[in-house]
Amino acid sequence: MLLKCESAIENLRFAFWAAGKALQVVRDARLYREHFETFEEYTQTRWDITPQYAGKLIRTWRVVDALFQAKPGGGLETIVSKKLGYGQAWELVPLAEEHSVQAAVYLYLGLLKVKGAGVTAALVQGAVQALPEAAVGHKAKTEEAVFAYLSSLEEGGGGAVPVADPAKAVRAITKAARALNMDTVHAALEHDPKRTRTAVKALIEALSSASGMQVTFAEVEGKSDAPALEGDLGDGEPDVVGDPSATSAA
User: Fold this and answer.
1) Which one-letter DSSP state was computed for residue 32?
2) 0.90 exceeded by the pTM?
3) Could you give phi then psi for residue 132, rounded to 5 degrees?
């Protein structure tokens, strides 16, 4: 009985896409004209849906159609077919209409690569709003922008961001290693000391944990407001304190 019920519910997720496409055909070809004066009268009287909602369904179906036809690999097609619904698709419409459907496809698939089935309409909306103009329509740049957006949520307390693509994770770490040097850190400290210390501390903890090291941080008396890393003993290097055997093993 549960399987039968869920099968019926599952059909609802695809119904909005099919309905939007059909409504556009009816509207554009004026197939309603034998019994109704206007398309708005047709949708309201025949289907009891407002013209506004009918318009949203029409505006949404092309994005869904493009995503269903996309072949990103890595099992993402399955997530699209099982996860994509009206709420998420609607949040992609502004990007598709202002730029292109392909730009919306790149953004949604970029979200899936990082969040997998955890993508929500709220995440889609935020990613669309945060997408830089220079990244629109460019696959690699869009993926980088999406990753940066999700990372910013993590900094704000949104929790860890799971990486679904190991190869992408390697590229991200390699890129970060090239970009992160003392000049970059000092410039960031001068601009925003508190946020930079927090970010560097989180980075050190993540790297040390991955390498089997235990790290703790000690505040330096009288230097809480100075642009120095937490755990700095005054020599510009972070103080590493922990289990000697763990450090030796690493």
Assistant:
1) T
2) no
3) -65, 150
Convert the pLDDT of each residue in 181-201 to its tens digit.
Answer: 777 777 777 777 776 777 777
39 Cβ contact partners less than 8 Å away, ≥ 6 residues apart = 26, 27, 30, 32, 51, 54
Euclidean distance between the first and final Cα of the chain, in Å?
Answer: 55
pLDDT digits (tens, 9 = 90+) for 78-103: 777 777 888 999 999 999 999 999 99
What's the one-letter identity of residue 187?
A
Domain parsing of the chain, residue ranges = 1-66, 70-164, 180-249
Structural Rg of the chain based on CA atoms: 25
Based on DSSP, count helices (H) and strands (E) in the chain, helices before strands.
12, 0
Q: How far apart are CA 147 and CA 127, in angstroms?
A: 9
Nearest Cα to Cα of residue 43 among 90, 31, 62: 31
> What CA–CA distance (Å, rounded) separates 124 from 122?
5
Closest listed residue to residue 154, CA positions, set 189, 132, 126:
126
Nearest to 201 by CA among 187, 215, 221, 181: 215
Q: Phi and psi for 126 in degrees, rounded to 5?
A: -65, -40
Query: How far apart are alpha carbons 54 and 107 in whole angstroms?
Result: 25
Give the Å distances, CA to CA, from 106 to 16, 126, 202: 22, 15, 30
Q: Give the DSSP letter of residue 236.
A: S
User: Where would I find the H helices in 70-100?
Assistant: 76-83, 86-98
Confirm if 114 and 164 have CB atoms less than 8 A apart: yes
Nearest to 14 by CA among 80, 95, 74: 80
Which pair of tokens denotes residue 151?
């990372």
